[in-house]
User: Fold this.
Amino acid sequence: MRTFTYLRPDDVAGAVEAVAADAEARFIAGGSNLVDHLKLGVARPGTLVDVTRLGLDAIEPHEGGLRVGANVRNSDLAAHPVVRQRYPAVARALLAGASGQIRHQATTAGNLLQRTRCVYFQDVTTPCHKREPGSGCSAVEGYGRYNAILGASESCVAVHPSDLAVALTAVDAVVVVQGPGGERRVPMTELHRLPGDRPQDDTVLEHGDLVVAVELPDSPVSGLSTYYKARDRASYAFALVSVAAAVDLDGDTVRDLRVVWGGVAHKPWRATTLEDRLRGHVLTEETVAAAADAELSDAVTTADNAYKPAMVRGATIHALTGLARRAGAATTEGVDA
Ligand SMILES: Cc1cc2nc3c(=O)[nH]c(=O)nc-3n(C[C@H](O)[C@H](O)[C@H](O)COP(=O)(O)OP(=O)(O)OC[C@H]3O[C@@H](n4cnc5c(N)ncnc54)[C@H](O)[C@@H]3O)c2cc1C
Assistant:
């Protein structure tokens, strides 16, 4: 058994200082990911700095949108009436994740910063560049059903597991970080990294950076939004692929949109080629399929994960044409009322 020091500071500055000063220290929030990694030997911190007493658990109005404290529990965020009404993709993504019990324990920041579920990353008896830089990648030649199809590298083919991260990227959320050098704001599109030759770094955060909040802006696209997740079981399973879609329509025509894919890359994959093709067009099965195919033109698959392009294409058609139908229904309902 490995021993470690446990600290529970009561202010943000103390928590940042405690981790920044000690290369072996790590923040812990709900512990639903990190404690598993302690048990598996994937993480071996000398000090755990508990962040649950820092007062970061409020959901508050912020510049027309919402500011969500880093420690807000996933179940509380999913149930919040403003989130349900104005950011439905976020509520749906949260409810599609894990189980009720885990959502009560899991926090907003912990969910975004959870690590890949790649089986080789979690198995300390196998080589993995992400866990042990320079050791190799077992997933490239191994069991590859869940592997990335976009943006992967020779070093790493793992996918990012968070449903919430995919939805927050689609609603243009911004992560507020308090680090040793002060506060900064990181757009969700820039928080997570592609692996390149540094797969051990999931995000752009530095050691000692504490996520204190996530801001959901007052965005014209977020109201008409959804999250659709394809998985092996109806619940309690990570995404094979997922789609967060958020649309601003002018009649039937797309004024603006965000489409983000989960389960396909080392980070939430903002489908910008697809988006560019759909702005100014009507959302039909044909237009969305053609745009998805353009986005997928660089996809690389193996026999194990060859199902993913067709699955994410179908999920995107389902999500976007569903939103278009919903917009038509909402207009009619509004007129009738
Ligand atoms: C069986 C099971 C099924 C699951 N299914 C899903 C699923 O379908 N979809 C999904 O999205 N997730 C799923 N999860 C993952 C679960 O949602 C995460 O474990 C959880 O969200 C992590 O939150 P936490 O607060 O427990 O994080 P912790 O385990 O406490 O921390 C996770 C990481 O975040 C860091 N961290 C925590 N808070 C901060 C902060 N404020 N600033 C900086 N760093 C911080 C920690 O140092 C650690 O590296 C599942 C988990 C389990 C066990």
Remarks:
- The longest strand covers residues 241-250.
